[in-house]
Each structure stands twice: as C-alpha cells, then as structure tokens.
Amino acid sequence: MAQSLGSLIRRVFWFALALLLILFSISNRQHVVLSLEPFGALMAPVPVYLVLFLGIFIGLVIAGGVTGWLRLKGFARRRKAERRADYLEGQVSSLSEDVHKAQATRAHETVSRATEALPKGGKEG
Prior knowledge:
Blueprint: H1 2-27, E1 31-36, E2 39-47, H2 48-117
Antiparallel strand pairs: 1-2
C-alpha cells in the first residue's frame, strides 16, 4: 500500500512539474538577445524559456560529470585499498606460517634434548 502511494505521489509530482514547465514556456515566448560580450558577432535572439532550460541542462551535465568523476576516483581508491589489503593478508599468512614452523622446530629440539637426557636401556640397580 505504502509503495503504491509513494508511486502515485511521485507521478503526481512529475506531472505537476511538467505542467509547470509547459506553462512557463508558453508564457515566456518573447525573445532575448544572447551574446558573448567581447565578441560582438556572436549574438542570437532566443526565447527566454530556452535560456532557462539550457542553463538547467548544462548544470545537470556538469553536476553529472563531477559526480561521475568523484565516483570513479572513489572506485579507484577502493580497488587500490582492496589490493593492498590482499597483499597484507598474504604477508600476515606467510609470517604466521613462519612463526608456526619456528615454534614447531623449537618444540622438536626441546623434546629431542629431553629424550637425550633420559637414561637409555634397562633398569639401574
């Protein structure tokens, strides 16, 4: 129920926004001169709504580009950290095996010295 209500609200919002933009476009059809000031030859009469929509579109493209670039940068940083973690886990595993081997060797030497110290053969007496 809540999902369908959310979907209905979303649709009503987008419909109202589209209607508002259409009404804005119809009521602002007059032309304005768009120019790039230092270059006097670059002058063009365009409708006001087109200037607004182009501004919004250019802003969205720039925002999308920056967001995509930041996500890509974060992805690269995360991949680098994962590779570093894998490398360090391998190092820890290798060092752990070396420590266990060293402990086993010391234990073996201790046991062999202890068995050498025991008397050999039968009973004394």
